Amino acid sequence: MRVKREKERMRRRLSSLLYAYTFLTRLPFPRSWLVRLQSDKDEESRLEWQQSVAFYPVIGLVLGLVLWLWAEVVAGLFPLSLASVLLLVGWVYITGGLHLDGWMDLADGYGSNRSREEMLTIIKDSRVGAMGVLAAVLLLMVKAVVIYEWLRMGETIGFIVVPLVARFAVVIAMWRFPYVREQGMATSLRQGLNGRIIAVSLIFTVAVVLAVHNGIGTGIFLLTLLWGGGFVRAVMGKLGGMTGDTYGALVEWVEVGYLLIYIALFLWW
Fold first, then answer.
1. Interior/surface letters 90-111, b for 16+ CB within 10 angstroms, e for the rest
2. Average pLDDT over residues 251-257
3. Whole-angstrom distance, CA of residue 193 vs CA of residue 130
């Protein structure tokens, strides 16, 4: 009986992990595995989906490893200017532009200078306006240039930690700050978080950052969290809560922040 319970617990964890994987990435995966591991009971499937948020940092690490390998390939084959663009293209591709979409939607709403309710309506609208397009272009320009500088410094292995820290920031934002609507995808995900999950996620994230960037990683990590915290506070001040799109925008903001902060510390230290 105990063995059966352990197997069921493992199946649920794997199902939650795969929920996170298929939601946050567009990397190839045998769909039959997910179907095999998913529960056929609605209540259990809902719980497995809720618990998937605990694995966001793990998926961030997977994305980082893919980026690192891709960076090694393109940096070895092409001039660094072209390699940086190709790395950025790969970065957007493996996430399906999921977070970039949130960044554009938030820019449309945040830049409209309307009332809170009108901003939330604009953010929820799937259509992209001029502010969203402008924000995406500027973000990608900054990201491409910063990636070029990382490649120029030979810092390809550092790409491992950038998506990881960004997904950890989302976990903290979900846990610490309220969701703007009573019903929504992120509302159910928040219910899958608790102090133990946050502690494990923190230890896991810090361990990887230190393994990649040694002592300087602590400073980069803390400064990046402050960078992300400023973003969340600004969003909370305007909207009064977080949304799915703001979580996606937070990922983009934190990724750029980590890239920029590393360069700043590298130059001044």
1. bbeebbebbbbbbbbbbbbbbb
2. 97
3. 36
